[in-house]
Amino acid sequence: QVQLVESGGGLVQPGGSMRLSCAASGTIFTIIAMGWYRQAPGKQRELVAVITSSGRTNYADSVKGRFTISRDNGKNTVFLQMNSLKPEDTAVYSCNADVLDSVDVTRKNYWGQGTQVTVSS
After folding, report:
1. What stretches of 1-66 adopt beta strand conformation (E)?
2. Please, which pLDDT band fits residue 80 given cuts at 50, 70 and 90?
3. Which of 9, 13, 19, 71 has the most CB atoms in a 10 Å sphere around its CB?
4. Which are the contacts of 26, defined by CB distance < 8 A and separation ≥ 6?
5. Rounded to the nearest 5°, which phi and psi values hold at 75?
6. Cα(120)–Cα(18) distance, rounded to whole angstroms?
7. How is the chain split among helix, strand and coil, in percent rounded to 5?
8. What is the C-alpha to C-alpha distance for residues 33 and 106, in angstroms, rounded to an integer?
9. Mean pLDDT across 32-47
């Protein structure tokens, strides 16, 4: 089993910044990719940003130029730096990890518990 522990989140004013962290632990042989998704009230969950083991990144168009995803491979941790936050960024942000399990070397996908980000004055 793999556990994803998220930190960060909370209330921030429009134009402000916030950093989310997600640490993965457990039966990890290797992490294929880690990313962040978000779900606003009444909307479907959407991809925010993802980073692969090789460092390739992909962002939602709505956050390009404002959000940056990065990764500490040694600590199995992914970060999401969010700048120039807008009220429409308000959502529950969830960490996702695509891993090769160290027990049976099969590919598995895991989710964190989610953290609320509220952008409001």
Report:
1. 2-7, 10-12, 18-26, 28-39, 46-52, 57-59
2. very high
3. 71
4. 1, 2, 3
5. -110, 5
6. 13
7. 5, 60, 35
8. 14
9. 96
